[in-house]
Specification:
The structure holds two protein chains of two kinds. By secondary structure, chain A is an alpha/beta fold. Chain A has five helices and five strands. In chain A, helix 2 links the parallel strand 2 and strand 3. Chain A is globular. Chain B has one domain: Hypothetical Protein Ychn, Chain: A (3-Layer(aba) Sandwich). In chain B, helix 5 crosses helix 6. Chain B is globular, with a radius of gyration of 14 Å. Chain B starts with a strand and ends with a strand.
């Protein structure tokens, strides 16, 4: 397996620069020839919601920006299943959110134009262990 | 009292809610003073809007709707993209959020009506 840079995005899309910093770091790294893999974890999964309408707060749509990642050769995109499940549980009031993960993904942008792998905790550990460097935003 | 929440960390907010999840002595004392006082207005702004589903659930579970007036700033709610998710998870969710949304002018008016104002942020 080749060495790669893993970028972990853990913040909601707006009102702080973390999400945009992660995105720009990924683009910058791939521009200098590094292999980049991108992981959404924690509140970072909120960046994937397709119904974002940030015009009122003078921002560009983060979900639309993320759809461009494959154009910059960032095709290995991962989403932490536990983060998704916990957040969907809060929204649906269900106690067994793991069962509803696919339903959640139907509502987020990665389900159509951005291919991402949903990873569990074990796969997450392997992903991090095999990275040559990890940047967490 | 008005609490404006800019953080999506529930831990930062829950200690200010009367009879909330925590039930320690300090909280009971706070809850007593709140019940004797007017309604608390909680306004969710910026990343605080992501707390909305959790807060709605807790207010219902703890029967706090008479004590807490929950509001959500509309532009931040629209930006989040949560609307589609909330209404798909719960058919009445879309109607419920409509009742809670405030625009910028209404938020400013709420700030003028209430005292003190507490801001909760990371």
């Amino acid at each position: 397996m080749s060495a790669y840079l893993l970028i972990i995005s853990t913040h909601a899309p707006y009102h702080s620069s973390f999400a945009m910093d992660a995105y720009e770091a990924a683009l910058g790294a791939t521009n200098v020839g590094l292999e980049v893999r991108f992981l959404f974890q924690g509140n970072g999964v909120f960046q994937l919601l397709s119904a974002q309408t940030p015009a009122g707060i003078q921002h560009k749509n983060m979900a639309k920006k993320l759809k461009a990642l494959p154009l910059f050769d960032i095709e290995d995109i991962y989403v932490c299943s536990k983060s998704v499940a916990l957040r969907f549980e809060a929204i649906s009031g269900q106690n067994h959110a793991q069962n509803y993960t696919n339903e959640f993904f139907e509502k987020i942008s990665i389900s159509d134009e951005l291919e991402a792998q949903i990873v569990n905790e074990q796969e997450l550990n392997i992903l991090m262990a095999n990275a040559s460097h990890i940047l967490r935003f | 009292m008005l609490i404006q929440v800019l953080s999506n960390s529930f831990d930062l907010v829950q200690s200010y809610l009367p009879n909330s999840v925590q039930n320690d002595d300090e909280n009971k004392e706070r809850a007593g003073s709140v019940e004797a006082d007017k309604k608390i207005c909680v306004v969710l702004l910026q990343d605080g809007v992501y707390l909305y589903p959790s807060l709605v659930r807790i207010l219902e579970e703890k029967d706090l709707n008479n004590l807490i007036d929950l509001r959500v700033l509309d532009i931040d709610w629209m930006a989040s993209g949560l609307g589609a998710l909330v209404s798909s998870a719960d058919k009445s969710g879309a109607q419920t959020i409509e009742r809670h949304l405030v625009n910028t002018q209404q938020w400013v008016a709420l700030c003028a009506e209430h005292s003190p104002i507490m801001t909760v942020q990371d």
